[in-house]
Structure formats: C-alpha cells, structure tokens
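Lab meeting, action items carried over

1. Structure of the two-component assembly. Owner: GW. Status: complete.
Input record:
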Amino acid sequence: MVDTLERTTAHEDDHGHGHEEHHGPGGLLNWLTTTDHKVIGMNYTVTSVVMLLIGGAFAMLIRAQLTVPDGAVVSLSKYNELFTMHGSVMIYLFAGPFAFGGLANYMVPIQIGAPDMAFPRLNAFSYWLYLTGSITMLLGFLTASGAANFGWVGYAPLSNAVNSPGAGADLWIGALILTGFSAIFTGVNLVATIFYLRAPGMTMFRMPIFTWNMLVTGILILLAFPVLTAGLVMLYADRHFGTHIYDANGGGSPVLWQHIFWFWGHPEVYILALPFFGMVTEIIPVFSRKPLFGYKGMVFATISIAALSTGVWAHHMFTTGVVLLPFFSFMTYLISIPTGMKFFNWIGSMWGGQVRYTAAMLFAIGFLLTFLIGGITGILLASPPLDFFTHDTYFVVAHFHSVVMALVLGAMAGIYYWYPKMTGRFLNERLGKLQFWMLFIGSMVFIMPGYVLGLQGMPRRMAVYIIDPTWQNLNIVSSIGGFMIGLSTLMFAVNVISTIKAPKTAGPNPWDAHTLEWFTTSPPPHHNFYSLPNIKSERPTWDYFHPDAPALIHDDHDPSHVPGGAKADAK
Amino acid sequence: MKAEARLLIFLGVFIGIMGIVYGIWSKEWGGTAMLIGTGILGVFPGLYYRWWSKRIGYRPEDRDATMEEGAGRIDTFPGSSIWPFTLGMGCWFLVLSLVFGTWFAVVGIPVVMFALAGGTAESRRGGDPAGH
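Predicted assembly:
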C-alpha cells in the first residue's frame, strides 16, 4: 500500500480557485499583490542578498581605507557613515531578514506540511515594511548631512540631536522601526504557523530542527524586538520632543539606552545565529547519510540558548562600570554549554557517515569551524578582566566577524542546499566549491589579523591609525582577506546568474533528503503539496523513499515505534 | 497543544526567576523590569495554550495520526491582495513624515486608513467559512 494520501486541502482563495489551478495576476501586479509564502520568501531572499552586496561594498571601502595608516579613500566623516551603515545593513537588513524572512518563510510551512503561513497578508505586509525600511535606511546617503554615523549601536549621548543632527540619524531610527515591526510580524507568523498548521502526525518532536530553530527564533523575536522599537521611539522623542530619557543633563540615563539596546541586541545575536544552526543541522545529516545524532538534545539546546540569551545582555556593557559583572559573566559562560552540545551533535551526525562533500556540505563544515572560533573568543570576552582589556579594540571586531562570517557560510550552505527546491535548478557545484574555498580562506585571512591587532590595542571605528609597520602589515593582510570575500561573493553572483535560465533538472528530492519539503515538486506548487506521506518520524520523506530502513524512535507513547515499523507500515 | 504550552511556560518561568535573582542581586530596575516583563510574555500565552490543550485534547498534529484524520478544510487562505502593499506604503509615508515633515503624514494617514478598511472588508468576504 502506498501511504500517500490526498489531504483534502479545501483552502480556496478569495477568487474561488482551488490550489491546483491558481490563476493570480501576472507580472508586476503579482509581485505587488502576492500572499504566497514562497513568493514572499523569494522576495525576502533576493532583497536581503542585495543588501549583503551593498553592505559588502561598504566593507570593501572600509578595508581599502585601512590598508594604509592615513588612508584617504574616504573622508573621516564618510568613514563613520560607512562603518555605521555596514553594520546596520548587515545586521538589520541582511542576516535576520535572510534567515527568518527568506529561507524560513519559504521552508517552514513546507517542512511542517502546511499550505501557507498562518497569516498570509500579514506576511506580505511584513515584507513591504522590510523593503521600505531598507530603502529608508539607505536614503540617508542622499541627504545633505549624510547617513547615520554613530555606529550600528547608536549609543546615547552620541545619537542625540546635538551630537548627531541631520536627517540621516532620523532615517536610521525610522528604518529600524519599520524593519522592527516587520520582524515582529514575521515572528508572530512563524509561531502561529508552527503551532496551528502542522500536518497530522507532525508532532512537535517530529518537526525538522530547522523548523524548531525558527520557532524558537520567532519567540525570541517577540521578546526582543518590541524592546528595541520602544527604545527607538524614546530616542526619537529625545531628539525631537525635548524629553530627557537618555540625557544625563535632564536627569535621564545614557546607560539606559545601552540596557535597552542590548536587551534586544543579545537575543538578536541568537535570532541571527539559530536559523543558521538550523540550516546546518538539516544539511549535515543529509550529506552524511545518517539520521541526526541527538535530536532531542538539539531541541533542548536550542530552547536553553533562547532562555539564557535574555540574561546575558550586559556583557556588552562591562566597561560602563555600572553592571553586575559576576551575573552576566556567569550567564554568558552557561550559554556555551548548549552551544557546545550542538557542536557535539553535529560532529556525532557526521561520525561514521558516508559524507558527500557537496558545496552545501563544505559550507556547513566551514560554518562549524568559523563559528567555533567566534564562539571560543566570545567566551574569552565574557571574562570581565579580559573584556576590560580588549573592549572597543579589533579583538572584539574579529570576534564578532568570526561569528557573522560563520553565518554567511551558513547562509551559503542553505542557499546551495535549497536552491534546487526553490527554483528546480542546481547551482554549479564546481564553482560552488571554488567559492567555498575562496570564502573560507578569505574569512580566516580577514579575521585572524584582527585578533592580533586587538591585543596590541588597535581601537575599532578609526579611519586612521598610528604609523607602525606591524599594524599596517596586519591591516593589509586583513584587507586581502576582505577582498577575497568580495571575490567569492562575485563568484556566487556569477553562479546564480549563469543558472538562471538552466533547465529544471532537480526533481523533487535531489539530495535524498529527510524532511517534507523534499516530498513535493521543485519548485513546489501553489499551496505546496499535491499529497503528503504519513509522518512516522522526524524524517517522513526518507521513511517514504526508504521503507526498508529501520524507523527512528523518539516518542515513547507512540505505538508505531518499533524497529521496522515504517517497513511494516509501507506493506 | 501541550508541548507548545510547556515550551512557553518554561521560557517564561525561567526568565522570570532569572529576573527576580537579577533584581535582588543588582538592584538595577531597567533590566529587572525587562526580564520580568519578558517572563510574563512567556507565561501568559503559555497558560492560554494550556487552557486550550485541556479543552481540545490531542489534535491530529499532536499525536501519531494518518493523513485521513486531518482531512478536510484547513483554513481559508487569501489568494492575492493589494492591501498589504498599500498598508506598507502608508506606513512608510508615516515614518518618512517623522523625518521630512508633516506633509508626508497628510498622504500617509489616508492611505493607511484606506488600506485598513480595504483589508478588513476583504477578510469579511474571503474569510466567510460558508462562502464558496
């Protein structure tokens, strides 16, 4: 017996069409009016990759400026705008939206067997807020006073109306309010979709780890982003309505801004990281031809990272001198335990498997290595004595660039893995592997000199530095690494453009993968599925295509969970 | 529904306890307020889900179930709609009015109201379960 069943998906749209024959408007009007999570997910992905290119172009200018101690590539004030906008574009407009707006929007409903997100119109609305927010932030460059120039953290009192006058700063605040609401709506959508639209049999502990991570990310968005938005509204009030919330002269507290900002900012680090953890957790077992090692451990690690991430914010503020050092130091150390557990499980998933070194798998392994460096240096920085010594130096810059370069590697892993699903076409594997080595080696060459420079005391956010041959040589090496990363991005662009007209040869399940998105066609039809397999484990697609493989057992109360259960079921 | 409720309650209680410990230890009120508020944000919907889980028991997606058990109408999904875009543009103009002057709001507020009314009217038509 074939256990594929037509799940009667009687979800008719406004115009009364069934899901098989969807005739929406075409062309531009389709793009403007769509509520299909796949189209919105693609819009998010493409927009955020464009933002990656823009933020990357800023980075190239910054690295060019720093190749000589008294660089004159850009003016000093333009340099301030560049590093501010580089950070802002990458954090607010690329990393988050790419993960929770792009790939999650596309994949989460399909992974749980849902026809769409729970609130399709809210989903479309959040894309429009994201797009307009991105444009608003970049508009700063077109104003007479230039873009925001107080760093991506916008610390008070530098960000007040006296120290940062002009429209650029206000545009930055407005952009973050727009993208903040966009993130909140996406968070609501993700949580509601995962809670209410799972297919029958898709229990919480059978969800793919990517979906689990996106659920936890959604919850983190809901608890973090409203704080930032509130903080920004108060910052705007300080700038324009004469309040003194962050103004020490009027009885306010500049440190309050830091508290509010980092209360958003540290969960945000995990909002950025968890989706990429999830992507890598999907990719490694598939290309090791093994089930995931430690599924429940992975879920609990994700939840405990979320729980702990709210209690570590002030480790960014050790040097303010008014925070509780032991509490935040201890909590930060604690968070390394679930992260370490994840590393253990990733390695356990590869251990003894038949590893296929495809481009996606290479990027995933590159993610592990790079993130490990970022994580370990993060633990160093959690120690207050070391943090006092290295605060605001290139050591910190190198630390978080290790983390975010790992996220870029993870993003590439996700793109190479899911591109066949999203388009029906393969990216060029050979060029992909070349891109991986360029990006991975480039990242290392770019990051490592930063650690040395930081320990020698080079401050961050400086357009010029003292004339010292060691510092200059290290900066040149770092810039070479930066340009290698730029080159790898061009290789990626070439790869995408050269396959854009290729024939659709991928088929539904090119990687012999585990999760439900690989059960439907590539690209999936409107409302995602013609039929669904019965879900007996966290690997429904694998179970369906490999009825002879032993079933995975997780839920103790589940009667089908006996060895050979899936096999017996298939006959 | 039970696992969902547990997840939210666990996060809320954990963060709430952390907030209490932090508040007593540091006597810093900003962070304490944010932590306890976050804890409530977890517990509140968590208890709501728990209440529902007691009322509706195990849904097909909460237990071992075949596809037949979930057959039938899932929900009504809007096919395409211009209102999210319109509302987005209205909100954009409202934000730009914060920067460039009130005249942007003169455009933004009507667009937002128009979009909200249009979207609501559309929901009433499309969301009717007796329709189609």
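2. GW to write a short summary for the group page. Key points so far: Residues 83-126 of chain B form one domain. The longest helix of chain B spans residues 29-56.
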